[in-house]
C-alpha cells in the first residue's frame, strides 16, 4: 500500500511544497497532508483507507456532498458527447439562464474557468467601463491570485504570512487601496480622498478567507451607497458565498444589489468553473459585443456546464438552504457548547452553510480580531480532530462548509470528536 507519507515525499521533489495549491500542504497546522483516494457524501478516504468527515468540501463546491450521483451521472452523460468543442453549446445557454434566474442583480454572464479568472475579469471590466484605475479591496479578503488582489490578501497568503506577495509589481499594487472590513468610517474617509479615481470596490459579502466574518448590520448597504455616490462599481465576490449562504447568494441574503458579481466553486459542481456577471450595460462592454477583452479556450466547457447545471438543480429543492443553515447551527452550537464545558475561550460565526471557529471569547467582526485569536490552539485542535477522523480546513484563516450530506450522525460524531479534542488541549 502507498502511504500518505510516501506520496508527500515524492510530491515534494516535484511540486512546490508538494502541492498544487498552498493551503493543502498543512504548513500552518504542521504535519503532512493526507492524499485522498475517494470521496463520497460527507466523507473522504485517504490512500491508507482512513475515513474523515469533511468540512472543507473541496473548498466550497461540494454543497450536496461528494460524488453526488446526479452530478456524476450528468458528467458521465456529457462526456459521451465529447470533452470540449470550441464552439458554443446548448449547456452554456442553460447555464446563463439559470444563473440569471437565481441571482437578481445578474442580467448577463460570462463563464470562465476559476474564481481567479472571474475576479480578474470583473476588475478589468470595472476599469474599462469607468475609465478609472484604482480598485478597493479589504484586508484579509481573498479574490484569487491576480496581481491586484495579492495585497493584504487572506487565505493562503494570510496563512503563510505573505499577504502581499513578492512578484506583484509595485505599480500594480499601488492601484489597490485597502480597507479594514466592517469599518464604514474608514471606507467613507477613503472615498472622500480617492473616490473620483476608484473604478470598483470588491468585497466578499461574507468574508471567508480570514476565517468566517459576516458583515455588520447595514455595512454592505453603506458600501452600496458610497459606490453609487462616487460612481464606483460595487463588485461582490461570491465565489464562496454564491449559492451557499442562500440560493441567490449573499446579495439575496442581505438584500443588496451589486453592479457585478463573481462566481466559482458551486456553479462548477466540482469542475473548474468561474463566472462573472451583472448589469446588462456593463456586461455588453465585454468582447465581442464590446471592446473590453476577455476570452478562454475551455470557457463554457460542456462537461463542466453539465456538472454545474446538475448541482444548481439540486440546490433549488424547496427548503434546501434553510435546512443547511439549521444543520450548521446544530453543528456549531454543539462545538461551542463543548468548548465552554472544557473552559476554553471560543466563539463561532456562521451564515447559512458557512462557519468559522475562533479560539477567543470575543465575537469576531474584524481582521484584527481574527488574527488575534489563538492560532496555536486552533492548530492543536485541528490535529485533535484529524486524529479523530474529522477534517477541518488546515488553517485558522479558512471558513468551514456544511453540506446536505452532513446528517445528524456526522454532526453528532463531530461534536463528540470536538469534546474529546478540547479535553486533550
Ligand atoms: N474569491 C474567493 C472569495 C475565494 O474564496 C476564492 C478561492 N477560495 C477565489 C476568489 C479564487 O478562486 P479560485 O481558487 O477558483 O481561483
Question: Overview of this structure, please?
Answer:
With 425 residues, the chain is of the alpha/beta class. It contains 15 helices and 14 strands. It has helices at 4-14, 69-80, 90-102, 115-130, 156-159, 170-173, 184-194, 219-230, 249-254, 280-283, 302-314, 320-341, 367-372, 375-387, 408-424; strands at 36-40, 43-46, 51-54, 108-112, 134-138, 176-179, 198-203, 233-237, 260-263, 274-278, 347-351, 354-358, 390-391, 400-401. A seven-stranded mixed sheet has the order 4-10-9-8-7-5-6, sandwiched between helices. Strands 1-2-3-13 form a four-stranded mixed sheet. Strands 11-12-14 form a three-stranded antiparallel sheet, covered by helices on one side. Helix 8 links the parallel strand 7 (198-203) and strand 8. The model has no long low-confidence stretch (mean pLDDT 97). The structure holds 4'-deoxy-4'-aminopyridoxal-5'-phosphate (PMP). 4'-deoxy-4'-aminopyridoxal-5'-phosphate (PMP) binds next to helix 4.
Fold topology:
Layout: H1 4-14, E1 36-40, E2 43-46, E3 51-54, H2 69-80, H3 90-102, E4 108-112, H4 115-130, E5 134-138, H5 156-159, H6 170-173, E6 176-179, H7 184-194, E7 198-203, H8 219-230, E8 233-237, H9 249-254, E9 260-263, E10 274-278, H10 280-283, H11 302-314, H12 320-341, E11 347-351, E12 354-358, H13 367-372, H14 375-387, E13 390-391, E14 400-401, H15 408-424
Parallel strand pairs: 3-13, 5-6, 5-7, 7-8, 8-9
Antiparallel strand pairs: 1-2, 2-3, 4-10, 9-10, 11-12, 12-14
Helix pairs in contact: 2-11, 3-11, 7-8, 12-15, 14-15
The structure holds 4'-deoxy-4'-aminopyridoxal-5'-phosphate.
4'-deoxy-4'-aminopyridoxal-5'-phosphate (PMP) binds at residues 59, 114-116, 119, 142-144, 155, 204, 208-209, 237, 239-240, 264, 274.
Amino acid at each position: 500500500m502507498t502511504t500518505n507519507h510516501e506520496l508527500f515525499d515524492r510530491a515534494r521533489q516535484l511540486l512546490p511544497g508538494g502541492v498544487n495549491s498552498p493551503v493543502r500542504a498543512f504548513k500552518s497546522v504542521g504535519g503532512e497532508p493526507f492524499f485522498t483516494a475517494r470521496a463520497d457524501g460527507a466523507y473522504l478516504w485517504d490512500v491508507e483507507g482512513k475515513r474523515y468527515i469533511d468540512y472543507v468540501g473541496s473548498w466550497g463546491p461540494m454543497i450536496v456532498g461528494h460524488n453526488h450521483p446526479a452530478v456524476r451521472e450528468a458528467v458521465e452523460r456529457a462526456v459521451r458527447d465529447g470533452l470540449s468543442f470550441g464552439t458554443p453549446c446548448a449547456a452554456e445557454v442553460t447555464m446563463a439562464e439559470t444563473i440569471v434566474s437565481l441571482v437578481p442583480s445578474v442580467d448577463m454572464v460570462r463563464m470562465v474557468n476559476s474564481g481567479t479568472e472571474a475576479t480578474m475579469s470583473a476588475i478589468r471590466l470595472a476599469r474599462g467601463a469607468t475609465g478609472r484605475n484604482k480598485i478597493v479591496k479589504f484586508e484579509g479578503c481573498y479574490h484569487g491570485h491576480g496581481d491586484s488582489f495579492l495585497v493584504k490578501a487572506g487565505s493562503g497568503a494570510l496563512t503563510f504570512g505573505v499577504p502581499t506577495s513578492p512578484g506583484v509589481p509595485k505599480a500594480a499594487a499601488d492601484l489597490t487601496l485597502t480597507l479594514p472590513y466592517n469599518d464604514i468610517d474608514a471606507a467613507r474617509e477613503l472615498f472622500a480622498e480617492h473616490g473620483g479615481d476608484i473604478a470598483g470596490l470588491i468585497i466578499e459579502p461574507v468574508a471567508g478567507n480570514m476565517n468566517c466574518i459576516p458583515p455588520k448590520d447595514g455595512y454592505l448597504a453603506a458600501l452600496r451607497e458610497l459606490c453609487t455616490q462616487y460612481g464606483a462599481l460595487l463588485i461582490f465576490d461570491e465565489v464562496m458565498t454564491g449559492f451557499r449562504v442562500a440560493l441567490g447568494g449573499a446579495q439575496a441574503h442581505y438584500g443588496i444589489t451589486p453592479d457585478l458579481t463573481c462566481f466559482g466553486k458551486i456553479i462548477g459542481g466540482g469542475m473548474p468553473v468561474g463566472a462573472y456577471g451583472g448589469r446588462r450595460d456593463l456586461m455588453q462592454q465585454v468582447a465581442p459585443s464590446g471592446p473590453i477583452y476577455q476570452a478562454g479556450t475551455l470557457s463554457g466547457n460542456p462537461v463542466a456546464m453539465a456538472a454545474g447545471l446538475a448541482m444548481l438543480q439540486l440546490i433549488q429543492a424547496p427548503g434546501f438552504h434553510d435546512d443547511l443553515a439549521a444543520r450548521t447551527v446544530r453543528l456549531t452550537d454543539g462545538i461551542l457548547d463543548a468548548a465552554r464545558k472544557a473552559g476554553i475561550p471560543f466563539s463561532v460565526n456562521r451564515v447559512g452553510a458557512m462557519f468559522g471557529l475562533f479560539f477567543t471569547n470575543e465575537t469576531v467582526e474584524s481582521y484584527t480580531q481574527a488574527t488575534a485569536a489563538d492560532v496555536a490552539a486552533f492548530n492543536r485542535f485541528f490535529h485533535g480532530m484529524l486524529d479523530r477522523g474529522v477534517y477541518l480546513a488546515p488553517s485558522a484563516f479558512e471558513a468551514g462548509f456544511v453540506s446536505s450530506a452532513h446528517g445528524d450522525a456526522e454532526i453528532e460524531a463531530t461534536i463528540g470528536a470536538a469534546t474529546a479534542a478540547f479535553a486533550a488541549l
